[in-house]
From TrEMBL:
Any one GO molecular function term: transmembrane transporter activity
Listed Pfam families: MFS_1
Keywords for this protein: Membrane, Transmembrane, Transmembrane helix, Transport
Protein's recorded name: Major facilitator superfamily transporter
Transmembrane segments annotated in the record for this chain: 69-91, 97-118, 130-149, 161-182, 265-287, 293-314, 326-347, 353-374
GO annotations of cellular component type: membrane
Length: 390
């Protein structure tokens, strides 16, 4: 049950934070009376609170059982998504986006820690890739739900409100399940005594430890003084800028190519498929050949090509622009490699928690920059934003 539940958590996390992407073409602008500038703010403000809570969550995971902590956070952000269905104004929407970022920022570091507790170094990239598939599968699920709910007519709720309500309730169910049945570590699992010993013994070669609830300040200092920390941080920031742009504005970009709202929903599915395929290939190769850096560089190439196609092809070349949009989804596959890089190279529980927080803060910075490149005066083509992706 470990991998399926980790995947469910990441699907919920990615789907919930990108629901505004689908809502943008389902009438959110008109129903909540917001402008394009307001929408851009809704996209990046999420990552500000996400960033602000990385270190508090790191401390919380150090002090409390990791799986229980994760489950409670999933329930909390599921409740926020559900409440978003009742929002009718910019003020309400931006409040829920801030709160959503506060709770969702716990999921990636939690899953990174859990992965290192159960799997050997060479097993970590493909296992990280499996739960990180939640990005691509979340896109596919969100697109299908958006298309379906656009056909629902209700006198009391708009279609985008129904989308938030249903997805929020499903997220709460996932959080409750994680809290009740997910083991915090091998020693507290339902394995037999002999199986627990074997689960821990097989990780001896990692030389990174499993779990320690004592906060060690010397490991924090060691993490900050390690040059590798800041190189990984810089790579994560630069590769996250396109992710921030595409995850919140993919529907807006595709609709800008000349498609209607229902077509836009379905045309996002291939982007999710590109993400799934690139993650599977990259994490498999990283695990097989123990080579993460080369894979990260390789994944940036289709992203650069995709940004160029969107920015420089003629306006009437819809197919080429769509292909470019899909190719930018490959960049996101570099992040699970960064996650597993930390799990493999950082020894000591406090040091891993600290580096996880730094990596996620770097991820947030890139995702804050991405939406800010989408300015109202550049609509509907958003050429400067597409050039930024390159």
């Amino acid at each position: 049950m470990i991998m399926p539940l980790m995947w469910c958590c990441y699907v919920a996390q990615y789907l919930d934070k990108t629901l505004i992407n689908y809502a943008a073409v389902m009438g959110l602008y008109e129903d909540a009376n917001i402008t394009k500038a307001d929408f851009s703010n809704l996209a990046w403000i999420f990552y500000v609170s996400y960033l602000a809570f990385e270190f508090p969550h790191g401390y919380g995971m150090q002090r409390f059982p990791t799986a229980k902590y994760l489950g409670i956070m999933v329930v909390c952000w599921g409740a926020i998504v559900t409440v978003t269905a009742a929002c009718h104004s910019y003020a309400g929407l931006i409040t829920t986006r801030v709160l959503l970022g506060c709770f969702e920022s716990a999921v990636a570091p939690s899953l990174m820690l859990i992965t290192t507790m159960w799997y050997k170094k060479n097993e970590q990239p493909p296992r990280t890739g499996i739960w990180y598939l939640g990005t691509g599968t979340g896109t596919i699920i969100g697109s299908l739900l958006s298309y379906a709910f656009q056909h629902v007519n209700s006198a009391s709720l708009y279609s985008w409100q129904i989308l938030f309500l249903v997805v929020g309730l499903l997220t709460i169910c996932i959080g409750i399940t994680v809290t009740l049945i997910f083991p915090d570590n091998p020693m507290t699992s339902r394995l037999s005594h002999q199986e627990k010993i074997w689960a821990i013994e097989r990780l001896r070669e990692n030389q990174t430890g499993i779990e320690n609830k004592h906060f060690k300040s010397n490991q924090v200092a060691e993490c900050f003084m390690d040059p590798q920390t800041w190189l990984l941080s810089l790579i994560t920031i630069s590769s996250s800028v396109p992710n921030g742009a595409v995850s919140s504005f993919q529907a807006t970009l595709i609709k800008g190519f000349g498609y209607d709202s229902k077509q836009t929903a379905l045309l996002q599915i291939p982007g999710g498929a590109c993400s799934v395929v690139s993650i599977l290939i990259a994490t498999y190769l990283a695990g097989k050949f123990d080579q993460r850096g080369l894979n990260v560089v390789t994944l940036l190439i289709p992203g650069i090509l995709g940004g160029a196609l969107m920015a420089f092809l003629p306006e009437d070349n819809k197919a080429g622009k769509l292909i470019g949009n899909y190719l930018t989804n490959c960049i996101g596959a570099s992040l699970p490699l960064m996650y597993s890089w930390v799990g493999a190279n950082y020894a000591g529980h406090t040091k891993k928690v600290t580096m996880n927080a730094i990596l996620l803060i770097s991820f947030c910075l890139g995702n804050i920059i991405g939406p800010l490149t989408f300015r109202a005066e550049d609509a509907p083509e958003y050429i400067p934003a597409k050039i930024t992706i390159i």
